[in-house]
Design brief:
By secondary structure, the chain is mainly alpha-helical. Helices cover 93% and strands 0% of the residues.
Length: 182
Amino acid sequence: MQSGIQEIHASIAEAATAMRGYLLTGRTDFLDPFNRAEERLPVVIDEVGRRLRDEEQKNRLERIRTLVAAKVDRLELLKRADILRAGGREDIAAQLIEGKQVLDVLREEIDAMSRREADLLHSRTEAAEQVRTLSRSLMIAAGFLGFAGALIAVFLFSASIVRRVHALKAQAHRLSRAMSSG
């Protein structure tokens, strides 16, 4: 989950960096990372969405999905050659500033999602550790009970044998007295 969240963040950052490179140079080869991110982001967001179980995280992912779409749309606007030719530096700067505002909100949502996922992972890890501790305790208790049961069984079995041996010895003495008196 954490890697998917980080991939969303990295893809957005890479797309924005690619766009700035394109705007500074006018070279379309700078747009390759943007194009890859544009294709990959919906796939990653869907993958993360399928794995989410927490409602708060699902809601946050939907906000992230909306922000990503808005950011990609803004970057797509900047990609158009007519902005570079006609708009001038002020128009590009205004677009970049608006895009940065969207990116800042997006980063906050991604950070919040990442923190929440870390908290969920921590609580699940604690719960698993509690189950392991309980299981270990039950196994130790069962071992002691089994050992105690085995000792009791050995004692009862030994006591029974000792009683029989004593009874046999007593009968042998009676038989011996009966034979010597008779």
